[in-house]
Amino acid sequence: MKKLKCGVIGCGRIGCGFDEILSRTLIRTHALSYYKNPKSELVALCDIDKKKLEYYGKKYKIEKVYENSKDMFEDQKLDCVSICTTANEHFKLVKEAIKNDVKGIIIEKPISNSLDSAEKIIKLCKKSNVVLAVNHQRRFDPFYHLLSKLINQKKNGNVQNVNVYYGGGIANSGSHIYDVLRFFFGDVKSLNANVSLNSSNNMQDPNYDVKIQFKNKIRCNLVGINFKNYGIAEIDILFAKKRFSIDLVTNQVKIFEVLSRVQDYKLLQLSKQLKGKRPATDIRLVIENFINCVQTRKNPFCTGYDGYKSLELVVGSILSAKSRRELQIPFKNKNYKIESR
Ligand SMILES: NC(=O)c1ccc[n+]([C@@H]2O[C@H](COP(=O)([O-])OP(=O)(O)OC[C@H]3O[C@@H](n4cnc5c(N)ncnc54)[C@H](O)[C@@H]3O)[C@@H](O)[C@H]2O)c1
Question: Model confidence over 67-109: pLDDT tens digits?
């Protein structure tokens, strides 16, 4: 099969910058993922920042780099494009890509800056038969598929509560958290949010503390933590018979169960530890699945709809805190725009 011609728009951190050494086995960027994948060829880079373009153009030995996405699409017959800019640019870039007959588009999270534009992105791709993926990368890792199975085993007993610690903003990190929660527990029925007292250190994207009720009646608390102190992204699931403590960055999981007693008091003790093959920052499998789906016209592991549902919970958290009320999902306000990221 012919190699797919791929381009990256936005040569910032996730587009190119996280990978300075091209020989590393841990792959953290779209550019290096295409570069290393035998089924794809990285043929174009685009960024409004000329310096980054020249730097990464040389690094990847790409002859033609573009300061303007329209020029790139007109000049190159791209099969696939990665959109790695901030969310406010996504809709415009998707329209350009579709106009120029790409076969596949992968968008960095969050899918867009409003539910309205996210919906339009999904509809446009569907109408044009374009494969659309969103990079909530944990869905692409077999380890998370295994975890989801283990979590949903009846023998764990009922879920008493789920607690999540995260930081770095509800749109930036929270969108990943919401995606993983949906992956494990299904859709959310309602949520009630407040701005967290622990800063995200980004005025445009605060942390929110959120009480969540899933449709299957599972309850969950999201607690914002200040990343200036330390980074954290953890899900703690308290079943009746077990406890799963999941580190969403290192992909290390501790499972506890009652193994002994002190009189009437049942002691939870570590019974098993699991570790994924790679940390969550490795996005090689994301691009691998995306490329395969473009070739076979299948749905990727994280679809536009998944991206939409994660954004819905981000926007819902903001609207709930603003109105100081519990919010039922879905809600009507699709025009609310989140700031950048
Ligand atoms: N999946 C993940 O784990 C992960 C990690 C980091 C960032 N992200 C997401 O990726 C996106 C980008 O984040 P980043 O940290 O790489 O940002 P960044 O600021 O480092 O990079 C964005 C780049 O896009 C360029 N750009 C902006 N508008 C453009 C346009 N119209 N045409 C061409 N280039 C344009 C900017 O000049 C910049 O170089 C964000 O949405 C972020 O949430 C995801």
Answer: 999 999 999 999 999 999 999 999 999 999 999 999 999 999 9
Q: How far apart are CA 26 and CA 22, in angstroms?
A: 10
Residue 135 pairs in a beta bridge with 108
Q: pLDDT digit string (tens) for 188-217?
A: 999 999 999 999 999 999 999 999 999 999
- Kindly state if the Cβ of 29 falls inside 6 Å of ligand 1: no
Q: Which CATH number fits domain 140-278+311-328: 3.40.50.300, 1.20.1290.10, 3.40.960.10, 3.30.360.10?
A: 3.30.360.10
> Domain 4-137+282-303: which topology?
Rossmann fold (3.40.50)
Ligand 1 pocket mutation pick from 9, 18, 47, 140 by most atoms within 8 angstroms of CB: 47
Model pLDDT, residue 63: 87
Q: Helix or strand or coil: residue 17?
A: helix
Q: Which of 32, 41, 30, 46 is nearest to 6 (CA)?
A: 41
Picking from 34, 29, 37, 56, the residue whose alpha carbon sits closest to that of residue 45 is: 56
